[in-house]
Task: structure prediction
Amino acid sequence: MDETYWRQGADVSLTITDLNDQGEGVGRWRERVVFVPDTAPGDQVLVRLVWVKPNYAYGKLQTIYTPSPHRVQPACIVASECGGCQWQHIRYEQQLAAKKHQVEQALVRIGGMTNPLVAPVQSVQKPFAYRNKVTYPLGVNQGGEIQAGFYQKNTHKIVNINQCPVQDSLFDALLPQLKKDIQKRGWSIYNEMTHTGALRHLSLRIGRRTGEALITLVSTTAKLPHLQEQARQWQAQWPQVVGVCVHVNPKPGNAIFAGETHCIWGRDYLWETFCGLRWQIRPDTFFQVNTEQAEQLVYTIQKNLNLQGTECLIDAYCGIGTLSLPLAHCVRQIVGIEVHPQAIAQAQFNAQHNRITNAQFHCGTVETLLPQLSLKPDVLLLDPPRKGCDPQVVEFLRQNPIPRLVYVSCNPATLARDLRLLCTDGPYVLEQVIPFDFFPQTHHVESVSFLRCRL
Result:
């Protein structure tokens, strides 16, 4: 009987009991797991199986028999289509509980830990209108109208929008008019199948504390007819816009900022105030999209380290120095390591601009430069990309323990993998993990872990 129902296209009834690390609801049908997007724990639902394996399946929501008490009305009219958010239909308190559970489960299942100390998720006061940067893919519909928005989940189909509840409200004012002006100018839109056309993405960035904004067109060419004229019009229309840029990226592929940025009008950077410092931010600068939460992360690191002013702190994967430069007044010395030359140049500029003299930055990979540094750090700050630390970095730390480690992570799975090697099977003790909600309405969760050497 099970085989009759356990097949693609079959409809099954089940209760959603959990959320996975991709934001999908998790239910069980006769001991088999079913993953269902757009559901919430407590939903009683009818689901159509769309991808079936012997012990699990993916389903598409058909009917909600009884809604979960955690379910709310999404703030966005295209929430069920757009791949940008996964959890607008879930009450914010439940989102936080799910994110803490996600971190705990990773540490237990992947990290091999028993009852890891995970603090409550550091929440935001306003779970909407928080993004300081958005980059929309551009397209054209069958009627020839310019489309801008976000991709539908697991596709390259653009869900066209004119506003988005999670982005800074200024972008809602800019986006509809920018699309109209691109249409009016007749600028061609890039086709990723044929590799023809010019405009690929539209990127907007704002300084949350200064109000300064940048408009950046990502294009295969900077030769767009009447571009300077249009740039002047945009600046005249929106005084907050301090610069209009074109980032030229002619290479096929998914990388967006993979070329060179040219300033068309105004300046190619905005000023932002962050943790009491003044920062220069460019169109392609990596800077946390949630300014307010990033500040809270820095203050949490400072508080937990209880710095005395005598420490040497190494900032590995330092970027533009976002996490370490605000700590410069608390330590004797900061040494930053970053593989991207442009980020190093910006870190050096921002240090000089803020009259920080006890910070130096080195360009290269962490696995290469960390063993070469001729100093004994007291604190190592790790902020790797989603893939986690390079294995050589972890092995170096196992063989050459540093008294205190701070590990900032955007991926619980790779965090848990690295902590297993450093703590469960290594020389460090995990003191605590503090999750941060940088991306409300999504399944993404950041965290900061504090480790000390037990030797």
